[in-house]
């Protein structure tokens, strides 16, 4: 006789349908990778113009991958691209996007209130067993999830830019994330052909907690006039084996994103103050609208 009522659900209800909110740099990448690996994906944004931008990001990346994977075989290239697109739907009505989905991945702007508002709305209309995940770079998962009544079905699912190329996904458990939710997210990550790592709900999780202070130290080093931007980039590429130098990478991530991470951590007070002290150069560039590659200029001009 088995009196042991398990709280975990069997694997026959694994995730098939995914809805991604946000069709920007990260959202489009997540949609693409999920669709490429056989998930049915709905891409949601607030306006059709943003959806079109997301589609362009996916198009460019898919043709790059198709050319690489299928060399001169144009038919296979075409069929790979068509099959991937056949798994993607788009939607500008956020309520509709949440219908019948197994997993919601939020990749909208990095603003706590905006994310909470979205999840609050989705919590009311989604199926009770839909799992919610946020791709936030720096906001505490517990702060975003507390607005919902499904904190056991809530976690961080943090992808890296460029999503199709970067193999890592950080899975962030908060105190209430259930083992069943966690295991389903591990399964989804692996089915997307990514490697999962797990981290507690702490500032920056693993990668950004180490990467962002390093990027900021590079800016301080240049600001003190100890080396040029170009030489620091060359040094870290050739001397430390980084694919991009810290200024190239900062421009790639987005200077507004970096500033909002550092400003958020400073307010939060959990990280050593020296690591998150304001940097005039960074603040000035953001004020001038020089946000990195996406705006045509940052530390470098594109
Ligand atoms: N889609 C598909 N494929 C892509 C791609 C994309 N968007 N971007 C690059 N690739 C592929 C290229 O096709 C190419 O493939 P092959 O080598 O097999 O031909 C390969 O990636 C390399 O591309 P490139 O030759 O064009 O350029 P590169 O060698 O400079 O590599 C890069 C580009 C992969 C971005 C590399 O420079 C890199 O790894 N940079 C560091 C990126 C990084 O650290 N990202 C994390 C940022 S932090 C973050 O995301 C977290 C956060 O919360 C802020
Ligand atoms: P982005 O600005 O390129 O895209 C955000 C998209 O969200 C925009 O298209 C916007 O219209 C849309 N949006 C805003 N409110 C919405 C709503 N209520 N519903 C649906 N869509 C909405 O931003 P991004 O760089 O893709 O970043 C998205 C998230 O991913 C952020 O939380 C960011 O911190 C995180 N992140 C960014 C990076 C990076 O390198 N840029 C890396 C990892 C994680």
Topology:
Layout: E1 17-21, H1 25-36, E2 40-44, H2 48-70, H3 74-86, E3 88-91, H4 94-97, E4 103-106, H5 112-125, E5 131-134, H6 141-145, E6 154-158, E7 168-173, H7 179-191, E8 195-200, H8 207-223, H9 229-240, H10 246-253, H11 255-268, H12 280-287
Bound molecules: acetoacetyl-coenzyme A and nicotinamide-adenine-dinucleotide (NAD).
Residues 61, 64-65, 68, 137, 160-162, 164-166, 207-208, 211, 243-244, 249, 253, 257 line the site of acetoacetyl-coenzyme A.
Distinctive features:
Rossmann fold, binds acetoacetyl-coenzyme A, N-(1-d-carboxylethyl)-l-norvaline Dehydrogenase, domain 2, 8-stranded mixed β-sheet, 302 residues, 8 strands
Task: Walk me through this protein's architecture.
The chain has 302 residues and is of the alpha/beta class. It folds into 2 domains: 11-200, NAD(P)-binding Rossmann-like Domain (Rossmann fold), CATH 3.40.50.720; 208-295, N-(1-d-carboxylethyl)-l-norvaline Dehydrogenase, domain 2 (Orthogonal Bundle), CATH 1.10.1040. The protein is 47% helix and 13% strand. It has 12 helices and 8 strands. It has helices spanning 25-36, 48-70, 74-86, 94-97, 112-125, 141-145, 179-191, 207-223, 229-240, 246-253, 255-268, 280-287, and strands spanning 17-21, 40-44, 88-91, 103-106, 131-134, 154-158, 168-173, 195-200. It has an 8-stranded mixed β-sheet with strand order 3-2-1-4-5-6-7-8. Strand 4 (103-106), helix 5 and strand 5 (131-134) form a beta-alpha-beta unit. Helix 1 (25-36) crosses helix 2 and helix 2 runs antiparallel to helix 3. It is globular, with a radius of gyration of 20 Å. Mean pLDDT is 94; it is low at 1-10. The site of acetoacetyl-coenzyme A has 19 residues, from helix 2, helix 8 and helix 10.
């Amino acid at each position: 006789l088995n009196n042991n009522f398990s709280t975990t659900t069997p694997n026959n209800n694994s995730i098939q349908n995914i809805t991604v909110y946000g069709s920007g740099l990260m959202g489009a990448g997540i949609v693409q990778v999920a669709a490429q690996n056989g998930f049915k994906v709905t891409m949601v944004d607030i306006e059709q113009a943003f959806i079109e931008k997301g589609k362009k990001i996916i198009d460019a990346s898919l043709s790059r991958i198709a050319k690489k994977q299928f060399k001169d075989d144009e038919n296979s290239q075409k069929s790979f691209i068509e099959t991937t697109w056949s798994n993607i739907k788009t939607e500008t009505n956020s309520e509709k996007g949440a219908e019948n989905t197994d997993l919601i991945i939020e990749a909208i702007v990095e603003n706590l209130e905006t994310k909470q508002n979205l999840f609050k709305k989705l919590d009311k209309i989604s199926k009770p067993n839909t799992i919610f995940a946020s791709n936030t770079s720096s906001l505490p998962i517990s702060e975003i999830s507390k607005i919902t009544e499904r904190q056991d079905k809530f976690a961080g699912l943090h992808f890296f830019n460029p999503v199709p190329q970067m193999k890592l996904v950080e899975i962030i458990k908060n105190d209430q994330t259930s083992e069943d939710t966690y295991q389903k997210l591990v399964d989804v990550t692996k089915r997307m052909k990514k490697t999962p790592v797990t981290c507690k709900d702490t500032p920056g999780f693993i990668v950004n907690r180490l990467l962002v202070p390093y990027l900021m130290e590079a800016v301080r080093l240049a600001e003190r006039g100890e080396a040029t931007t170009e030489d620091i980039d060359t040094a870290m590429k050739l001397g430390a084996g980084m694919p991009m130098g810290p200024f190239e990478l900062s421009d790639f991530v987005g200077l507004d994103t970096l500033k909002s991470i550092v400003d958020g951590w400073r307010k939060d007070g959990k990280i050593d103050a020296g690591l998150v002290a304001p940097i005039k150069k960074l603040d000035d560039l953001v004020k001038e609208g020089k946000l990195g590659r996406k705006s045509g200029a940052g530390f470098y001009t594109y």
